[in-house]
User: What shape does this take?
Amino acid sequence: MLRDGTPAEAGLDPLWTDRLVRGVRELPEGRDPWCAGVVVLAGRGPVVAVQEAAGRAVRYERYDPGAGRGVELPPKEQEPTRVGTVFDLASLTKLCTAVAALQQAERGTLGLDSEVAGWLPAVAPGITVRHLLTHTSGLRPELPFYAHPGRRNQLALLWRETAAPQVPPGGPYLYSDLNLIVLQLVLEKITGRRLDRLVREGITGPLGMDHTAYGPLAPAGVAATEDQRRPWAKADRGPLRGEVHDENAWALGGVAGHAGLFSTARDLAVLCRALLNGGTYGTARILGPRSVAALLDPPGLGFRVDQPSFMGELAGRGAAGHTGFTGTSLVLDRATDTFLVLLANTVHPRRGSGDSTPRAAAATRLARAAGIRTAR
Assistant: This one.
């Protein structure tokens, strides 16, 4: 199980872990910072060697489109980021949906190569569970559920898309939130339980991830996200804190396969360790080793594999992970037994370009700390 220790105890080069920490501390600084607040946690084996918080979990009252910047709260009302600050995970939610799917596959209730139409007849023939998890279903990236309130209207919109995908299933990689939304519906159909309950009972509960849950959450201790207003957002919701940032997840009731979870860096490190341990953490087992390999081996099921854009120099030997639109990322590397969690609120006070350079830089510094040297 995880324990706090020094870089040396983790077998990491302190020079590079120091550079990792310094780089993260700089992210909330300057006139145009990458984020308002950030937490980084990294380690090797069971040792957490790096855990650092910087910036403000809550910094801005609102966004001023005329000035092109956020209106800061009075200093006494701003809240510093802490290592235990809770962040909106955005698309890191997809990882838990994928684990929940593999749990059902282990139980024999879900076949990875079974056609989704067997459970959801409105879905076009030929689309399998594996297609959903590998983003090769042919479905478009998203649909405007936020503009169609009501479960019946939202499902009608989804069924029209799934009946006629953009490209035939099994074709090229096309990242789509719809894949995990459809998978959520499959999981709920075969288990008779909502996704939040499946995640709680199958993943976060057994692993002791006590600070991981779907929202809405009480604002205390939660990092703020966006002052969500049109035209830069898709809905007029105002300043958000403890409510899911993703407009579609919000429109779907806050519990969705693609977004909606909130968590801390420490909780996500526990999930990393469980997967690096072949599915176990302490006395808990959430998956068997073969299922973990299915998740993490190329091309990855739910997880993305060897992506230098956010994994930096950890990519290349089978590193796996994901990013989230709000400024989050997670990388685990079986080759070096290392893990990196970076949580930030880059969308506070409004969404930006989504630059992943800081994520990749942090991963590269961890790679160097672990002794990886590449041509790059």
Notes: Residues 93-107 form the longest helix (15 residues). The domain at 3-95+197-369 is CATH 3.40.710.10 (Beta-lactamase). The chain has a mean pLDDT of 97.
